[in-house]
Each structure stands twice: as structure tokens, then as C-alpha cells.
Amino acid sequence: MRRLILWNLVTLDGYFDGAEPWSIDWHEEVWGEELERFSLEQAASADLLLFGRVTYEGMARHWTDATGEIADFMNTVPKVVFSTTLGDPDWDNTRVVRNGAAAEVERLKREPGADILIFGSGSLASSLMPHGLIDEYRLGVVPVVLGRGRPLFGPPVDRTSMTLLDATPLRSGCVILKYRPRDGSRSGTTPADGGAER
Questions:
Q1: Sheet with strand 94-97: strands edge to edge
Q2: What is the pLDDT of residue 192?
Q3: Using CA atoms, how far apart are residues 157 and 144, in angstroms rounded to an integer?
Q4: Parallel, antiparallel, or unpaired: how do β-strands 115-119 and 79-82 relate?
Q5: Which of 1, 198, 193 is nearest to 81 (CA)?
Q6: What is the phi/psi pair of residue 8, to 5°?
Q7: Which carries the bigger pLDDT value, residue 193 or residue 97?
Q8: Inter-residue long-range contacts of 18-23, CB under 8 Å, 24+ positions, other chains counted
Q9: CB 162: neighbour CB atoms within 10 A?
Q10: Domain ranges of the chain
Q11: Pairing assessment for the beta strands 175-181 and 162-169 based on DSSP bridges
Q12: If pLDDT is split at 50, 70 and 90, which confidence band does 157 have?
């Protein structure tokens, strides 16, 4: 089966977004050659992106006007956005799934292909965790404390133990951590299949 990998930059206090949506200027503290190289290597192993609606809309606004290798990947790779409210998508190669996120992701993982990536999309990730669908968690820990913001993992996620696969420090102070959920360590709560908008 294809692997589903979550990738996000997070602060030391566990936020992936600031108090206001897309308050991510703190990404600039660690962006540089090393993180760009990691992003390109990660992109080379994947052929599908998954998003919740809010992350999708922000990504679409940014990448449709951007240039470079990462922009080329983001604009051409197939994308699936899970939303009950999004209209017709205007970002190339995007398909909208209106309901049944977990069932659709399970189906996608059974299809032939390369890795599937989730960027941002904390609510989507949290809705998939209880189903054991995320195979690897990749977190770039940024050496900044926001004090308030949106945590990456929120309800209905319960305690989930992880095994550390790799830890790579960058010159910027960012540390890329790779984790795999431990066998049998899965949230005991299976939520309704909503909550994927973010």
C-alpha cells in the first residue's frame, strides 16, 4: 500500500498556525537551502497531495503565482481537497471530496502509486489519525514560541505513541523529526468523518 505522510512545520509550543489563519511568518526563521532541499527530496517521492479546505485555499493563493522547482511540483501534482463547502476548485489538478474522508483516503492508499502527502490541514490529519491511516509524521520543529495559535493535533485525537525514525538538525536551528505510530497505538475514538475543512 502507498504511504500517507504528514509534513508540517511546528513551533516549540506545538502550533502549526498562529492565532489568525495563515499567521506563518515564523517559517521564514528556518527557510533556506537545507529545508528547500528536503522539500524537493520529499516531493520527488510523492505523487498526490491531500488538503483540508482552508489549507487548500491558502496554498492555492500562494503557489499559483510562485515560480521555481517547488512551485512546479505544487502546481502540477494531483491534489485532493476534503470539503463540504468548497465550490469548483481553480487550482490545476484538484479534485474535491465532499464526505467520507477516511474511506476515500483508505481507497487512495490501496491504489498503485508513490507516497501521499498531507501539508497543513490539522483538522484533516486529526480526523484520519483514529483510523490509523497516517503512516509517518514528519515535523520540522522551529525554534520559536508563539504563545498562542492553532495546535497541529486537536480533538478528537487521543493519546498516540510514536517511534522515532530519524532526527535531523539543520543549521537554521530547525530539527526535522520523523515518527511512525507504534503498532497498536491508535486513538480509541472514531469521529464522524467531518472536521476536514482545515
A1: 94-97, 79-82, 46-52, 115-119, 4-11, 136-142, 175-181, 162-169
A2: 42
A3: 24
A4: unpaired
A5: 198
A6: -155, 145
A7: 97
A8: 18/146, 18/148, 18/149, 18/150, 19/146, 19/148, 19/149, 19/150, 21/54, 21/58, 22/58, 23/149
A9: 14
A10: 22-113+124-135+144-166
A11: antiparallel
A12: confident
CB 66 within 8 A of CB 96: no
Per-residue pLDDT band at 143 (split at 50, 70, 90) = very high
What is the C-alpha separation between 68 and 70, in angstroms, rounded?
A: 6
Please give the sequence-ordered ranges of beta strands (E in DSSP) within the chain, or none if there are none: 4-11, 15-17, 46-52, 79-82, 94-97, 115-119, 136-142, 150-151, 162-169, 175-181
Mean of pLDDT values over 123-140: 95
First-to-final CA distance of the chain: 26
Copy the grid coordinates of residue 15: 502550533
Q: How many CA atoms lie within 13 A of 34 on its CB side?
A: 13
- What is the per-residue pLDDT across 60-97, written as a single tens digit (0 to 9) for each? 999 999 999 999 999 999 999 999 999 999 999 999 99
* SS3 at position 29: helix
3-state secondary structure of 28: helix
39, 70 Cβ separation under 8 angstroms: yes
Residue type, 108: L
CATH class of the 22-113+124-135+144-166 domain in this structure? alpha beta
